[in-house]
């Protein structure tokens, strides 16, 4: 029986959350106890907030209320300095079509086409939220993190991998397992903020 629901239908995110939780909570079988929103017929939740933290909590809270299960949600995106922090919370639908990574990325790079590489500073932003239903204690937590020191350049882009793949950490002298887990393209770091179950 499900115990924790991810407020997403993304199977990649589900696999990553399961790996993060594996062996960390006594008695939790991540393969059967941690499920995505579709497994429990949870509704799609509009992202109506004005920040990553707000959007992630809106989703976690709504899914916890709808299912009666502990819910985990995230919201993330790219913030480009020269664009005033855009695309920000609109990263997934920057081109006007939600989830079209290639179109979103192409538009972003087009908007930066007359900007020199050294002025394309950006950061990857993410908020992760946990919501526990009232019946189980009514607890909520939100953590926010940023990966600064990024540069948005065409040579760093992998087509179809989302706008975050155009944001590559600069000046890394070595890549360790902990560093790799926080680099764009590996979403596992979205759920690594210090969320604690009550």
Task: Please specify the SSE layout and strand pairing.
Elements: E1 4-6, H1 11-21, H2 30-33, E2 34-36, H3 52-67, E3 70-80, H4 101-111, E4 121-132, E5 139-152, E6 167-169, H5 177-181
Parallel strand pairs: 1-2, 1-3
Antiparallel strand pairs: 3-4, 4-5, 5-6
Provide an overview of this structure.
There is one protein chain. 24% of the residues lie in helices and 23% in strands. With 198 residues, the protein is an alpha/beta fold. It has one domain: Maf protein (Alpha-Beta Complex). It has a six-stranded mixed sheet with strand order 2-1-3-4-5-6, with helices on both faces. The longest helix is centred in the first third of the chain and has 16 residues, at 52-67. The two termini are 20 Å apart. InterPro entries: ITPase-like_fam, RdgB/HAM1. One of its GO terms (biological process) is nucleoside triphosphate catabolic process.
Structure keywords:
six-stranded mixed sheet; 198 residues; Maf protein; 5 helices; alpha/beta
Strand order of the largest sheet: 2-1-3-4-5-6
- Helix coverage percent: 10-25%
Radius of gyration: 17 Å
SSE-based structural type: alpha/beta
The span between the termini is: 20 Å
> How many alpha or pi helices?
5
Keywords: Hydrolase
Protein name: Nucleoside 5-triphosphatase RdgB
GO molecular function: nucleoside triphosphate diphosphatase activity
Family: Belongs to the HAM1 NTPase family.
Condensed summary:
GO terms for molecular function: nucleoside triphosphate diphosphatase activity. This protein is α/β, with parallel strands linked by helices and 198 residues long.
């Amino acid at each position: 029986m499900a115990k924790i629901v991810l407020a997403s239908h993304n199977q990649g995110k589900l696999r990553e959350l399961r790996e993060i939780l594996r062996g960390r909570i006594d008695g939790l079988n991540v393969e059967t106890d941690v499920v995505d929103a579709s497994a429990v017929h949870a509704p799609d939740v509009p992202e109506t907030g004005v920040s990553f933290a707000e959007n992630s909590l809106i989703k976690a809270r709504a899914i916890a209320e709808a299912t009666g299960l502990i819910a985990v949600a995230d919201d993330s995106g790219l913030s480009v300095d020269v664009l005033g922090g855009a695309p920000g919370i609109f990263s997934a639908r920057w081109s006007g079509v939600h989830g079209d990574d290639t179109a979103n990325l192409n538009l972003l790079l087009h908007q930066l086409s007359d900007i020199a590489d050294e002025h394309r500073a950006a950061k990857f932003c993410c908020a992760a939220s946990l919501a526990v239903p009232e019946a189980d204690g009514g607890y909520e937590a939100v953590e926010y993190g940023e990966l600064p020191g990024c540069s948005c350049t065409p040579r760093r882009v992998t087509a179809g991998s989302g706008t975050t793949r155009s944001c590559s950490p600069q000046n890394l002298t070595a890549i360790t397992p902990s560093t790799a887990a926080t680099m764009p393209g590996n979403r596992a770091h979205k759920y690594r903020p210090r969320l604690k179950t009550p």
